[in-house]
Each structure stands twice: as structure tokens, then as C-alpha cells.
Amino acid sequence: MTKVKIVFASITGNDEDIAYVLTEKFEDLGCDVDMSEVSQTDVADFEDSDICVIASYTYDQGVVPDEALDFYDDMQDLDLNGKVYGVCGSGDTFYEDFCRAVEEFDKVFQQTGATRGADTVKVELGPEQEDIDNLDNFAEQIFKKAQEMDL
Ligand SMILES: Cc1cc2nc3c(=O)[nH]c(=O)nc-3n(C[C@H](O)[C@H](O)[C@H](O)COP(=O)(O)O)c2cc1C
């Protein structure tokens, strides 16, 4: 069974909602899914998974959330070759750096050698039906890539 690890950073619940949408979709696809909050998660969990996903909000001029900084730093030392990843997150277009943390996590995943399974998904605040459709599509693409790689 394909193992999926979903890590989220969320203060007001939008990214937690995103993580739940993805959990449900990956489970529908027949995956074994584990979801956890970033400050409660060890990066080694990604090494034990086939598919690695991050859902993060953006704060204060586009930086990675404070509680995700250790995780972000630890990711720089990971070798995730042969694994598939995806990044998504919530932001607010009121701010200049809309969903910048999504881009930052995408960059660090690239450094790990993991393969991007789908383009990033950026959600304006909480996920509406259109976002849920985009997230379902995101999960399907990632799963398809993992199947192509025999994961
Ligand atoms: C002080 C503050 C700064 C923020 N800065 C940004 C930002 O630079 N870029 C962005 O896209 N969203 C920014 N946001 C919006 C949050 O990312 C957005 O509310 C998000 O939905 C929160 O996700 P959560 O519910 O998972 O905590 C900011 C919000 C606050 C309160």
C-alpha cells in the first residue's frame, strides 16, 4: 500500500482543513495516510513514506511559519530520492507575498531529490468547493506519479 505523510502548519485551521481534504482523497485512492502538525513531526517520517505532502500557511512577509522553521531546516539534510512530493497551502491575497511559504517548501523539496507529483496548490483562506476540487486533482496527480514510479 502506498504510504502518504501529510504535514500541516496551521493557526486558524485553514491548512488543517486542507490536510483533511487531502487525507480523505488519498484514502479514497487506497493509500495508507498519516497526517500530523508540523511542530509535532520529525522529518524522518518523510523517509519512511512514498508520498510526502506539506500544507502550510504564510505569515509576516512571506516567511515559513515559526513553528515550522526547525522542520524546514531539517529538511535541507534529507535525501528523498525516489519519493514523490507535493506542496500546497493557504494564504491571503491581501498580502504582497501570497502563499510564499508554499514556494519555500517547494524549493527545499527540490533540494531533497524528491520528484514533484503536481503543481503547487494555493488556497485563498479556507478551502471552498473549487479549492477542494483542485486539491482532489492535486492528490490524484501525485498518486498517479507514485504509481508510475512503482511506489
Ligand atoms: C500577521 C499576518 C501576516 C500574514 N502574512 C501573509 C503573507 O505574507 N502572505 C500570505 O499569503 N498570507 C499571509 N497571511 C494570511 C494567512 O496565511 C492566512 O490567514 C491563512 O489562511 C492562515 O492559515 P491557517 O488557518 O492554516 O493558520 C498573514 C496573516 C496574518 C494574521
TrEMBL record:
Q: Enumerate the GO terms in the molecular function aspect.
A: electron transfer activity; FMN binding; oxidoreductase activity, acting on NAD(P)H
Domain (Flavodoxin-like) ranges? 4-143
Report the InterPro entries cross-referenced here.
Flav_short, Flavodoxin, Flavodoxin/NO_synth, Flavoprotein-like_sf
Q: What cofactors does this protein use?
A: FMN
Which Pfam families does the UniProt record give?
A: Flavodoxin_1
Keywords in alphabetical order: Electron transport, Flavoprotein, FMN, Transport
Look up the domain of life of the source: Bacteria
Record family assignment: Belongs to the flavodoxin family.
**Its biological purpose:** Low-potential electron donor to a number of redox enzymes.
Protein name stated in the entry:
Flavodoxin
Highest classification ranks of the organism:
Bacteria, Bacillati, Bacillota, Bacilli, Lactobacillales
